[in-house]
């Protein structure tokens, strides 16, 4: 069964002071918290706030490459949790041919940053 989530917010783990991404299930009060890296947290917060940097960040470069290749991010699937680590895939779909798609392994934080 699939559930749809959206970014609910960012925070800091009180003990480790590392960034935490909070994803909330749509039409529900359920949420998951994922500890992420500082670089990914910065990219996500900047995107949420519509901040633009003078020069592109790594995630910006990859987004530009995806768009120029004629693809878009169709969906992100978190498919496993092992030893406290979430595993996800990104599905990219060709803009002019929805039947043409590419699936790549990804950390959930990188997928959200895109």
The SSE order reads EEEHHEEEH
Strand order of the largest sheet: 1-2-3
The dominant shape is: globular
**Helix proportion of residues, in percent?**
10-25%
Q: At the fourth CATH level, what is the homologous superfamily?
A: Bifunctional nuclease domain
Count of helical stretches: 3
Topology-level CATH name: Bifunctional nuclease domain
Which architecture name does CATH use?
Roll
What is the structural class?
Answer: alpha+beta
CATH class: Alpha Beta
Strand content: over 45%
Unreliable stretches (pLDDT < 50, length at least 5) are: none
Mean pLDDT: 93
Could you list some keywords that capture this structure?
114 residues; 3-stranded antiparallel sheet; 6 strands; 25% helix
Topology readout:
Blueprint: E1 5-12, E2 19-25, E3 31-35, H1 38-48, H2 58-68, E4 71-82, E5 85-94, E6 97-106, H3 108-113
Antiparallel strand pairs: 1-2, 2-3, 4-5, 5-6
